[in-house]
Amino acid sequence: MTHLVQLYLYEGKSLPPEGMALLLLEGMLRVAGLSLLLTMLCAFLPRRWRYFVAALSGLLFLVDVFSLTHYNSVLDAGLLQVILATNPQEAVEYVVTQGGDILPLVVASVLTGSAF
Predict the structure, then answer these.
(1) Burial category of 64 from C-beta neighbours within 10 Å (exposed 0-12, middle 13-18, buried 19 and up)
(2) What is the largest CA-CA distance in the chain?
(3) Considering only CA atoms, which of 78, 53, 79, 75 is closest in space to residue 64?
(4) Eight-state DSSP code of residue 14
(5) Number of C-alpha atoms within 13 angstroms, CB side, residue 44?
(6) What is the pLDDT of residues 80-109, one digit of tens each?
(7) Which of these, 76, 77, 47, 82, lies nearest to 64 by C-alpha position?
(8) pLDDT (tens digit, 9 = 90+) per residue, 55-70?
(9) Which residues have CB under 8 Å from 73's CB, separation 6+?
């Protein structure tokens, strides 16, 4: 879904309405195709691995939503590289500073995870 937001923010504003509609249609088909592929691949995994993939996907979604709402940027390879290069002390400092914004996302993920 955030791929569609990125397409609109960076490419859609400069296009005419029909161009933007085609761009968003292409993005929706890409997201649907990748979702179908991931679903088919997960069908061959044991149940615990499927839960792990679902939890990882949910976590990446929350990181993406946080990044989009606070920095107007989507989760991409560059942002993942920055996240993985951060040492634990910097990560703790960031979580403490942004705690008020991160806490609702963590609570939502825990409540959603406990529903399963």
Answers:
(1) buried
(2) 48
(3) 75
(4) G
(5) 4
(6) 787 778 888 887 787 777 767 777 777 777
(7) 76
(8) 888 777 777 777 777 7
(9) 67, 79
